[in-house]
Design brief:
183 residues, mainly alpha, two-stranded antiparallel ribbon, 4 strands, EF_Hand_1_Ca_BS, calcium ion binding
């Protein structure tokens, strides 16, 4: 049976943190993904944005553990994470605040180097190339996310996109390849 768009998107988000691709995330995966992402974004070791990004991944790990729990080996399976993220009983606002937004906010700060509260296409492509999302998919996502058509993404557009990524019932919004395509 084919997964729903929300299941596919939650799985895709999980996959970005499963560094060793074993179908589980653990504290080490979250540490490494933060470290690797900071490296791929070209953040120097002493950059405040690097520290905020790594802190965000550590915070999200603690928040996911509190919400989902772990197995006896201190891991969370892909299946369990997806089940949690698409549960009809999920407090969506709490999920976004605790699980999605800390990393999104830290990434935003790392990319918005001029502090104008906007991401250009170039900044956006730099972000998603660090996640190995193809340029064509990232450009497609940028155009779809730029709802006011000004050639930049505002933080509000980006926040709405992250919410839609996880929760939209609209197949067009749920299909935006913000984190690439899940297999």
């Amino acid at each position: 049976m084919r997964p729903s768009p929300q299941e596919a998107n939650a799985g895709s988000a999980f996959d970005t943190s499963d560094v060793n691709q074993d179908g589980f995330i653990d504290k080490q995966d979250m540490y490494l993904v933060g470290l690797h992402l900071a490296d791929r974004l070209g953040l120097p070791p002493d950059a405040p944005a690097r520290g905020r990004l790594q802190d965000a991944y550590a915070q999200v790990w603690e928040n996911v553990v509190a919400a989902v729990g772990t197995d006896e080996e201190g891991r969370i399976s892909r299946e369990r994470y997806v089940e949690y993220a698409v549960s009809p009983r999920l407090d969506r606002t709490a999920f976004i605040v605790a699980i999605v937004w800390p990393i999104t906010d830290a990434l935003w700060d790392a990319l918005d180097t001029d502090g104008d509260q906007k991401l250009s296409m170039r900044e956006y492509l730099h972000l998603w190339s660090a996640y190995d999302v193809g340029t064509a998919e990232a450009r497609e996502a940028f155009i779809l996310l730029d709802t006011d058509g000004d050639g930049h993404l505002g933080k509000d557009e980006f926040a709405q996109a992250m919410y839609d990524f996880y929760f939209s019932e609209d197949p067009e919004k749920a299909a935006i390849p913000i984190l690439g395509r899940s297999s």
